[in-house]
Description:
Elements: H1 3-22, H2 25-31, H3 38-43
InterPro entries: YjiS-like
Protein name: DUF1127 domain-containing protein
Domain YjiS-like: 3-39
Amino acid sequence: MKIRQKIMEYAKLRRAVRELNALDDHVLSDIGISRSQIQAAVYGR
C-alpha cells in the first residue's frame, strides 16, 4: 500500500472515531457499542 493510501485510510478511520464519539450514549447503545468500544469497533481490534 502506498503512503498516500495509508494516510487517507488513517484519516477515514479517525473521522469515524470522531463521528462515533459525537453520538450520545443512547444512540451508541442502539447500534450495539459502548463508548469504550469505539476504538475497537473502528480499528477492528
